[in-house]
Queue: 2 jobs
Job 1
Amino acid sequence: MIEIKNLSTNLGDFCLEDINLTIDDREYFVILGPNGAGKTVLIECIAGLHRIKHGEIWVDKNQITHLTPEERNIGYVPQDYVLFPFLNVAENIAFGLRQTKYSKAEVQERVKNLANLLGVSYLLNRGIRSLSGGEKQRVALARSLALTPKILLLDEPLSALDLQTAKYLRSDLRHLHKELGVTTLHITHNQIEAEEMADRIGILDKGRLEQVGRPDEIFFYPQSEIVSDFIGTPNILECEHCRTLGQGLTEVKSSGLPIIIPHEGNTVRRIALFPRDIYISETKPPGPQVNRFKGTITNIKTSGATVRLKVKVGGNTLQAEMPRDIFEDMDLTVGKEVFLILKLRRIRVFEGQDSG
Amino acid sequence: MFKVLKGVGGERAFKGATVSALALLTIFLVGIVVSVLTYTDWNTFVSAILSEEILFAIRLSLSTATVATIISILIAVPVAYAISQTEFPGKNIVDSMLDLPIVISPIALGAVLLVFFNTQIGGGIDNNIMKFVFAVPGIILAQIIVISALAIRLLKSTFDSIDPRYEQVGRTLGCSKPEVFFRVTLPLAKDGLIASAILTWARAVGEFGATVTLAGATAMKTETLPTAIFLSLATADIEKAIAVILVLIIIAVVALLAIRKIIGRRYPL
């Protein structure tokens, strides 16, 4: 368990203001925030790389605030991996083990096991420079896990990777976390990544922890305008009727509007639709009319490269968003009838008790 | 004037001017080397180089430069690391002071040392601990004074170019500060270290001003290669002087080629 109490510090342009946070044992916690929010400073404080001005950091009832990094036993994977270029893959993974009492054979065995776990066994004798981004990330993870740390800190582990590699690594990271049960703090600016990975999310902006909660709590009950703006101000629809269709699908009704959602099980109380996940078409889209509705534009607002439109559909008014160049290619005006297409996979579901 | 040089014509004229400067300098350098080579015939060259005096000078130069380089690097590594990684008040002033030996004339540095050994403390060291004035240790000391500043400058830029995050990651992997210096920073600085050692060594081999002022120019005693040139010219023995010049040119070329090779394979940081 990590407990951060009243942590404040500043480092150049970045600062942290009175951070209070408890991360439970075996939890996968994601700090989500825009660039420059102070995310990296926060995990570097936990790793012991900066002296903090005020506050305390505790791990499992031991205060570690004044310990040096080597005394903390915290695994740390920096953003661009920082593998040692003068060592090969196996030597990089074994780096931390060379300080310990392990014999040479034990070190080799441990390196082999870690390489297997992360799927980099075939790389062990390779130099660092010949590795791809995804391979480097796996090697850096193996290296940080070699000393069986109690806590693992990941600084934007997926942001430098191409989409496909990031997708694989995302599921591998979850898998690894499940298998090793190491308490993990992952920082990212990517909302979808945070939502998919996190047990809980903390929203950090300008050095302040704005909100902490489960992903659905954050999306359905943003507690401040900053959080709401950052996550993209979703359309929240109350559901008055809920019917399971099977095969992972449920139909809900909101003000009479029948919407199919990717969900099975408990009753759904609310759904959230992000404006960027609602498409607008001037003509009736072909195919089955699932999650496709006719509506009337009531408002058009341009801000920078995006255009936000309000569309009245039955008893609901939905906010949609589209890139400006696409908007200009279409002939959309207030009062015009259009068709809305809701992206099924991106509909968020809230089934819990009200909390905010 | 720059208006006239617009367009393709201007581009050509500019390229022509810079390349001509390069060509002129290259021709000049090659020309003087060739003129030295053609001045003497092979047999005179070989007999000059195999004379006892020149062999002594070669041995003395190579051994003193090697000892001076090892000591300078041992001093320069901690100093350069401290300047590169530590912030303290007055750092800029200290940093500039360390450059003084690079810009001050070597003969002035030698004279300063000579004056020091004439003071009470310096004289005590010279008479009771180790003889420096007009002796071989004086050569090494003079070389160290001249080259250690160069070694510090080169190593500082090496340490500056190392991302501090390598050390940070090393620390999170259980290394203490000294461990991380030896296991992470020094291996990362290896190429820079070797290149600085070669450059400072080559500079030490060629050092004359400070050496001759402190250690004197006694044949077969404190006669290094540059001193040998000086002594040969003083006695109008041009063949001998040329033989020694060629030895120095060969040493310089080998050193420069070695550095090219090392810098060519440096890690992209």
Note: Chain A touches chain B at residues 44, 47-49, 68-70, 72-76, 78, 82, 84-86, 95-96, 98-100, 129, 143-144, 146-147 (CB under 8 Å).
Job 2
Amino acid sequence: MKRNAAGMVAGVLLLLPALLVTYRIVGLGYPPIPTAPGRTWEVSVRALVRPDARGVLAQLILPQSRGESIVMNEQLTSGVLDAHMVVSEGRRLGVWSGPPSEDEAIIGYQAIIHLPAGRGVTPRLKAPELQTYPPDLPPAERAALERLVARWRRRPPQQRLAAAAQTLGGEWSDVEAAAEDIRQWSSMSAERGPLQAFLLLLRAAELPARQVQGLPLGRSVRSAPLEWVEVWVGKEWARISAESGLPSGRSVQYLPLARDGEEALTVRQGKLLQARWTVRRRPVSNWFLHYERLTRSNRLLDRWSLFTLPEETREAFSVLLLVPIAALFTAALRNLVGFPTFGIFMPVLLAISFRATGLLYGLGLFVGIMLFGYLIRRLLNHLRLLMVPRLSIMLTLVIVALLYLALLGSKLENQQFMSTGLLPIVILTMIIERFYVLLEEAGVREGLRTVAGSAAVSVITYFLIHSDTLQLTFFVYPELLAMVMALQVLLGRYTGFKLLELLRFRPIGAPGRARA
Amino acid sequence: MILALARQLRNAGVLGINRRNAEFLSRCNPRALYPRVDDKVLTKQLAGAQGIPIPRLLLVIERTAEIRGFEERLQGTQEFALKPARGCQGSGIVLITKRVQAGFVTTSGEVISPEDLAYHISSILSGIFSLAGLADRAILEELIHPDPVFAALTYRGVPDIRIVVYRGVPVMGMIRLPTRASDGKANLHRGALGAGIDLGRGTTLSAVCRDRVVTHHPDTGAAVRGLLVPHWPTMLHLAARCYELAGLGYLGVDLVLDEQRGPLLLELNARPGLAIQLANESGLLERLQRVDAAPGRLFESAESRAAWAMETFQASQVSVTE
């Protein structure tokens, strides 16, 4: 009965976090593996503007965080100009302005763009409305356009797009159109530009389309942003290069800036002399990314995320969240293997303290303090002091020893000698006492075995709780603690043999001795 | 390999510490009753009330202030055993055989000055030897003179007999024989010899020393197997009675055999160790399960439980001649 109850508790403790994690990944678009690198790019724009008689006024349409793509660490730079970030008509703008001057002015913008690894979860898009014909389009031209597309107007969107895109290269093979209509379209193309003519053709073919200016996210330096056309092909936007008419591959991701014929960078007053649009890879830490993503969100789970804690608290909890795993591990070593350790959680405390001292030096310090303490304990034995005062004296002497070590470290300019702050000295003092009693009563072998056991557990625990992957995973999905608890419950119901017991009782189990 | 070994042990009915804790200690031993066995003063009081023979209590020292006059309070008593009331695994015990001008002579012939003994008592009071490290009391009790029947198998000290009692039924026994390595103490952790006892006959079986099976005493060289423990039925009966005394379903009973007074209850243990299985080359779990399967009327009296145990757990002839 109790076994079943424990099993059920463990089951619930496993199931609930599994559901929550699934919801976070599927419903809220969390990365399934929090440490997956994803892609981060540094995008920068630098332009040189010569002020005219009215001065300088320039505007840059800035990238926006959408879903999993986030924009962070934005910086506007300007030499002598005033720079502002404003939001207008749903767009984010960088605006630079300044008085007339002889000197050329610099406009600068820099940001880090993060895109999720893989394609992530694509949001379901709503079909856009068909754009209207420009009001200045003569009815004759409109009629010619409609005649041109008449043959493929009923085809599926992808085929209509393919046929229309061919025309950007001057190809009309698919269309048995009247030569007169083609000539008219050519003159439209000459008059309005090939891109506008293409957009008109898409309109005639009843394909919603929009013109976009932005940057391809790949290492590049260019003097102007890239232009492309996005065409709605039923469920998603297809991207067509405005220059070649070829569909762009999925391997490259694009950062849209301006839409619907707007220019990404507009200089209203002054003259744009040159511009440089740069994109390059910029690796950033996953902690930073999660922080940026979650603190921007106002969904309930994100607002209660651990990332909203102040930085120092965050750092402490990133380690504390792993202590239960360390405890589980210690319990497993004791109950499944049968490892001897001083105290139950002393090795865990020791491992946490190694954070400040470093592993090797921390271990050395632990062994050194044990030996030093043992010698002191032996000497103190002659004084016949009562236990608690004696422990206090040992504590004092241990601290004095550490103090001198730190002083020595500062003279030798050795940082490590000074980093003893987090060592659980009080607990170590108790351990010294137990070490002494163990050595006296059970012998050197048992004492050293236990010291080695404690040190081994704390080393393994050290690597466990200092794993950045684990820290980040538990920090993003703290509900995983319930799973750890489930394992603790299961371990608590383990009544089988310990590994070392198998060796110990081996003579009884020897074949031929077992009863039938 | 590991799984095969685990299966062998399971088939042999070996009890592991996890199972002992989860299925026997937590089920059979109510925490509230632990003081009855952890505190030797309380154990002695309860045993005295039940008429179970014990080493007589000479003196209890509870406070540091009482240490000063303890020699006078002993009056003419020459020999005694000094113990922590809540000590475990025999730690902190000093055996005194004689008082001389310079102080106290221990069983090993060493002379301890009165100051040293007073310091030891104050250490006991501060709780160094106690189970949970809490403040403790020191007790002085009558010194045991072991029956010479074990002399050939004993290096100094006093051998004692451990009987595991499950729901009042003795299930397994062993005699713990001090060695040079154990410093004359009857404690397996320190290297004493543990010899299994045939519950039916009271004769020793195989022996274990530091978890290794041995046939001879490492110091005296005498063969271990086949020694008859005197008063064996009485001892089993005493052990069975301790169930009513302590109220613990899973109990370790430690007895000693005094030359003059016969079997005496030395102490009780609420968490008896599992090495007894090695000494008997036999699994405890299998025996515990047989007790659970036994008819209900068995549990009516200590006599019936002890008699059932003698009959049921008699070592088979085969394993004796082996």
Note: Chain A is about 50% helix and 20% strand.
